[in-house]
């Protein structure tokens, strides 16, 4: 995504400005280490481009920046649930307006903190009090931390994901390792399957890998790099690509968009909301993904 050419609406520092694309405000970071963008709509990372690299993050050319729809691509924040276990699918965080709380910078990079608080809209969907923070650390690697805090007077339960879309040169030549062998296949009615140690896609995939290694790697022959995804606080890694038929069925994805992306997601997976992670009043939880290239 071309962030550099967007005109600044507000200058916050030498490295941080607010820009606007259509109806969406984006926190733009231009630093010696990397250029990055975080949409306030959805608390959504839309770009991370280290110096002398192509973007590590994939965004759809047809993503809708109307301030209402979830953005196609980037790193959607799926919370307080992941998937279609309640409505709306993937929760409300990815379509809510987040607040810019703080930004800090030094020679090593920039840290941006966003916050999402309860509102009338969220209470109609999910009747709990919460404090959600998104900490985005931009430097020689990208670290995204979703911290959720129970500020209610009773417990609540959640699931979620940092739904990272990764940019690759050609999906047919991209090789993924480290996701583990066991997975739940959403395309086979959640059948538990065993796979190999190496994955090269030839068709659509929608899998919850239940025993991922500490680091998942996507070797990209075309762009001559390996993307490294290190996750924390997760119980699984979701891998997804809609392939040709899926892409053609989405108004916000170009028909050939599937050829240059793969999702590798840091996920708290649960079959139902009640089977998610329970936080007592005052407790917090961090879900993290760290993305880099070598």
From TrEMBL:
The question of whether Cell membrane is a record keyword is answered with no
Q: Which residues form the active site?
A: 163, 265
In its keyword annotation, does this UniProt entry include DNA repair? no
Single GO BP term: carbohydrate metabolic process
Identify the CDD domains for this entry.
Answer: D-hex-6-P-epi_like
Per the record, what are the reactions this protein catalyses? alpha-D-glucose 6-phosphate = beta-D-glucose 6-phosphate
**Entry similarity comment:** Belongs to the glucose-6-phosphate 1-epimerase family.
Name this protein carries in UniProt: Putative glucose-6-phosphate 1-epimerase
Give the originating organism.
Vibrio marinisediminis
